[in-house]
């Protein structure tokens, strides 16, 4: 697993933990940076990803809700929400990451962390966001 893939995994872990603890992911990130709970400190890309998701939280949630046909955010498994928020941030806002790479990385995270149906769902939803991205203001 490459450095950026590991950074994405750690970002998903933080987003997942924050939601399950009822915390703001940005606050959890600050706490983890100040006092790491693992041997390896969080790298800059992990921080950038979490900060980006937090900065665009409402827009990302609205877009995921709008384009996830038949699924509300609350109905999705919480790990899928974390993966989708991260993937949506990279697809829509992270200009240094090609959309295809962001989608493929999110699908790989879904394969390793979620249900058998999640990779297809994550792929479809993020591909739809990439498709409509030019029309978003």
Structure notes:
With 137 residues, this protein is mostly helical. The chain has one domain (3-135): N-utilizing Substance Protein B Homolog, Chain A (Orthogonal Bundle). The protein is built from 7 helices and no strands. It has helices spanning 3-20, 25-34, 44-55, 57-67, 78-92, 99-113, 118-132. Helix 1 (3-20) crosses helix 3 and helix 5 runs parallel beside helix 7 (118-132). The longest helix is centred in the first third of the chain and has 18 residues, at 3-20. The radius of gyration is 14 Å and the shape is globular. The model has no long low-confidence stretch (mean pLDDT 94). Residues 6-130 form the NusB/RsmB/TIM44 domain. GO terms for molecular function: RNA binding. Keywords: RNA-binding, Transcription, Transcription antitermination, Transcription regulation.
How large, in whole angstroms, is the Cα Rg? 14 Å
Low-confidence residue ranges: none
Let me know the largest β-sheet: none
Structural class: mainly alpha
- Number of distinct helices: 7
End-to-end gap: 35 Å
Write the layout of secondary structure elements.
Blueprint lengths: L2 H18 L4 H10 L9 H12 L1 H11 L10 H15 L6 H15 L4 H15 L5
Helix pairs in contact: 1-3, 1-5, 3-5, 4-5, 5-6, 5-7, 6-7
InterPro entries: NusB-like_sf, NusB_fam, NusB_RsmB_TIM44
GO cellular component, one term: cytosol
Function: Involved in transcription antitermination. Required for transcription of ribosomal RNA (rRNA) genes. Binds specifically to the boxA antiterminator sequence of the ribosomal RNA (rrn) operons.
């Amino acid at each position: 697993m490459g450095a950026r893939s590991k950074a994405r995994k750690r970002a998903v872990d933080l987003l997942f933990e924050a939601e399950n603890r009822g915390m703001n992911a940005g606050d959890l990130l600050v706490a983890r940076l100040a006092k790491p709970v693992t041997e390896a400190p969080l790298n800059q890309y992990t921080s950038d990803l979490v900060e980006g998701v937090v900065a665009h939280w409402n827009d990302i949630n609205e877009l995921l809700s709008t384009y996830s046909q038949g699924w509300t955010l609350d109905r999705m498994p919480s790990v899928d929400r974390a993966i989708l928020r991260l993937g949506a941030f990279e697809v829509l806002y992270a200009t240094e990451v090609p959309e295809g790479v962001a989608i493929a990385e999110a699908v790989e995270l879904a394969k390793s962390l979620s249900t058998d149906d999640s990779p297809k769902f994550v792929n479809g939803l993020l591909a739809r966001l990439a498709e409509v991205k030019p029309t978003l203001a």
